[in-house]
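Here is the promised in-class demo. Please do not try to memorize the tokens; focus on the logic of going from shape to residues.
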């Protein structure tokens, strides 16, 4: 799964790396401990432009009776995303990329869960494959939410956890985002584990377990 990640670059870097045409974020701050239910930076495409905005992490299907269902939908499995009622519509029409520069995962060590920070060897920013939805409350309030797609762990990640987020290669950003791409088989072919050789990891403080903690020291190696 993917339950926490970091984004520690500035807005200008995001705009350059993801070829952003329009920014709808009023305030942007780096974060060392992004958690479910928070607003996360995300990129969507309207057929012409890449738009950078924020979505609530935890997808709420448009047909849901209660927004609390979003707490159970922070991730979607790549293997079944085209079949699940909660995700199949969004896979065809409402895909997004969620920028990050690392993610956290917990490894069982002597009966304890040890958190690790996983990032690319060159420390470059990357994009998770995601889906988004618009849900309207009874009072007419719209909530725009998202989920991060996960896949089986590559050889490197398997030492820590059995699954990992889908990190899209940059060459697939355009295809993934463009709403004209609707063949679910082709889309699922993009949802592969990143090469093990691209990743590295280090143990971090268990203080990351608390989502209220959000400061630079969290990402430091123990």
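The designed amino acids, position by position:
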């Amino acid at each position: 799964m993917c339950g926490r990640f970091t984004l520690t670059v500035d807005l200008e870097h995001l705009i350059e790396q993801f070829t952003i045409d329009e920014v709808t974020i009023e305030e942007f701050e780096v974060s060392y401990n992004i958690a479910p239910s928070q607003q996360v930076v995300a990129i969507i495409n309207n057929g012409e432009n890449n738009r950078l905005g924020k979505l609530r992490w935890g997808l709420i299907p448009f047909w849901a009776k209660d927004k609390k269902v979003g707490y159970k939908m922070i991730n979607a499995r790549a293997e079944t995303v085209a079949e699940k009622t909660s995700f199949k519509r969004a896979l065809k029409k409402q895909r997004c990329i969620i920028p990050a520069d690392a993610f956290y995962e917990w490894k069982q060590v002597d009966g304890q869960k040890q958190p690790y920070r996983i990032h690319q060897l060159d420390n470059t920013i990357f994009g998770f494959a995601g889906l988004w939805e618009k849900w309207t409350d009874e009072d007419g309030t719209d909530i725009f939410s998202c989920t991060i797609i996960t896949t089986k762990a590559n050889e490197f990640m398997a030492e820590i956890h059995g699954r990992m987020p889908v990190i899209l290669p940059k060459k697939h950003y355009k295809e993934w985002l463009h709403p004209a791409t609707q063949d679910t088989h082709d889309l699922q072919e993009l949802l592969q584990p990143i090469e093990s050789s691209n990743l590295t990891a280090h143990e971090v403080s268990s203080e990351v377990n608390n989502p209220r903690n959000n400061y630079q020291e969290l990402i430091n190696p123990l």
